[in-house]
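Need tokens for this chain, all 329 residues.
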Amino acid sequence: MSGAEVLKPLKTWSYLAGRRRKPSEYEIVSTNLLYNTRDANAPYDLDPDLAMNRWYKKYRNGSPLQHDDWNAFRDPDELVYRTYNMLQDGQETYVFGLFNQFNEREHDKALDPQWVGTLARLYTPSRYLFHTLQMASAYLQQMSPASTITNCAAFQAADAFRWLSHAAYRTKELSLTHTGKGLGADERAYWEKDPAWQGFRELMEKVLTAWDWGEAFVALNLVAKPAIEEAVMRKLGEAGRHNNDTLLGMLTDSQLLDATRHRRWAAALVKMTLEKPGNAEVIKTWIAKWEPLADKAIDTYCAALPEVPDAAREARAAVKEFQRSLALC
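Here are the structure tokens for all 329 residues:
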């Protein structure tokens, strides 16, 4: 047809064409991937009154936490499935190198029996706690309004599973050397009944019922997870070093590298949400709601830690400093 415009083929997907450069691997495989954000009235292409659609409309679309373009979020580390596996393969190689080296040195035989009892009470039950982190991160992954947020939550869930696996591995190792301590047998009783764990158990059981995706993010990533990382990782690791358990200290140091990355993406998401008026007040209200439970959990757990004076105060201060870095205090 004479005079008809000849369209030039795009060099990339249309939603990435505006940057006037070749899109990165991260942009290609991570952005604008959610299909259930196309129709606000029917996230899943069925009856709008379907239970699943009502759930997403209420707890994701209707969240008090709002932004004009959630797809604008970017992971500061720009991780994709391929690079995450490369990164964490190296981490796991390091962790299992620790296990092997300390096992060859018969590390567990040198541990004081009283400290082994402390591990049976305050460390090996942590696999239950880490499983709640995995489940809460998976819910956040499922409910997030953008695929770039979904990916971060998915990798966070995978890290929580790695932490759980480390605790399970050490539980078995310790049980082979120290019989009669209930290792591998009494963890559920400690988790459900020991006063040291009841604060974190209450906190995480309630976090798992925070259905609104925005509140779930704040409760998990800005309150509960930092509290767990500062108390059950950092302070427990310090107690380990003070009780000749260098392995535990080095293991928690490795896990805290993951936690630092989680905080980076959480901080980036908070920074983006604060662009919209009203979101700061929403986030602060949720922090105020969940903080007392987290402080109680830190206090009850740290009170049981040996050889770490001021553990609870320092852990609470570290959580508050993280929140302050986000301009939320």
